[in-house]
Write a structure and sequence with these properties.
Number of domains: 2
CATH architecture of the largest domain: 3-Layer(aba) Sandwich
Strand order of the largest sheet: 3-2-1-4-5-6
Number of strands: 12
Distance between the termini: 12 Å
Helix content: 25-40%
CATH class of the largest domain: Alpha Beta
CATH topology of the largest domain: Rossmann fold
Length: 424
Amino acid sequence: MPLAADAPAFLRALFAAAIAAADPARHLPGRLPPPSGRTVVVGAGKAAASMAAAIEREWRGPLEGLVVTRYGHGLPCQHIEVVEAAHPVPDAAGHAAAGRILELAHGLSADDLLICLISGGGSALLALPAPGVTLEDKQAVSKALLRCGATIAEMNCVRKHLSAIKGGRLAAAAAPAKVVTLTISDVPGDDPAVIASGPTVPDVTTFADALAILAKYGITEPVSVLQHLRAAADETPKPGDPRLAGCETHLVAAPQMALEAAAQVAREAGVTPVILGNAIEGESREVALVHAGIARQVILHGQPAPAPCVILSGGETTVTVRGKGRGGRNAEFLIALGVALNGLPRVYALAGDTDGIDGTEDNAGALLAPDSLARAAALGVDAKKHLADNDGYSFFSALGSLVITGPTLTNVNDFRAVLITAQE
């Protein structure tokens, strides 16, 4: 069967390989320290429950602890309690879980071990406001930052300085215990200080940096947040802080692993993979224009690889929300890509979030084909209007082209594959 006839299945196979490559069960064995004294496991993120389950399967001593994950992303564990909470805007369940996690850290001695399981989504899930800041304040700031298109590093800088647990504060609370952090990266560059706002990692950002970010996006409320940042009363632990001297951080899964796994599947199918990068940022619709340009270059000039080839990329794009539609950055990328390609033959694409959730919707992403815009028009669905309204979800839903995986229990951020088939 020609590749074009089976392009959706091929793209889904690449996505499945990318997700499987980030499965905690594949990476945690062999990463664990030997049992010593009391061992407490804490964690936060969309992969927290699956990481906790993997720890339980491998650990050979007494174990206790608590992790918090997104609603619907939990797994049953025997010794480690799993709590579910809201993401991307924090809620009371995440607030309560974060408080309990900090209490567990405070109760440790020099003979004890704290294993911290960190993955993407942990910033919103580990919601413990600093003194003088309320949960409602943090919710308001989170919503504002999400709507204005702030990068994940910018969002997490602000979050650290409104928190009593992020930006190294959890590790500081656990001193003098040994702290071993196992992390799955969902951020460009895999910086552990950015992943889930680095609760066990020294922080180089400052209150002044956080204030500058709010000023950049014109965020002037809540007033209590600005007052807290201006007071700068209790800075996050910095590199060299003696409270973090007993900390180790190990990256166990990252976006590059997902792209390389997908690339291998492509090679086995006789399709040349081209990995653009695992840390691509920027507005979703602008990143789409770049991918569209590369697809045209392949068709017209056989560069950077002759067809059949697949352009692979990862990272975390952003969406500045101006409309009222049901979006998600991957759906936004795809509808913008479709508009840019305007029915260009031989080009197919899939974009999805490896956690199974594109934004706040129930889909991981969607599929685009050369005839997607024409099929939509026949249904009375205008791609440009949906793009202007940030309504990619509704566009692809009308076509039956959503990719729905359910929670994958891991998270190495976005995955994009643009397939250019050979001329028949």
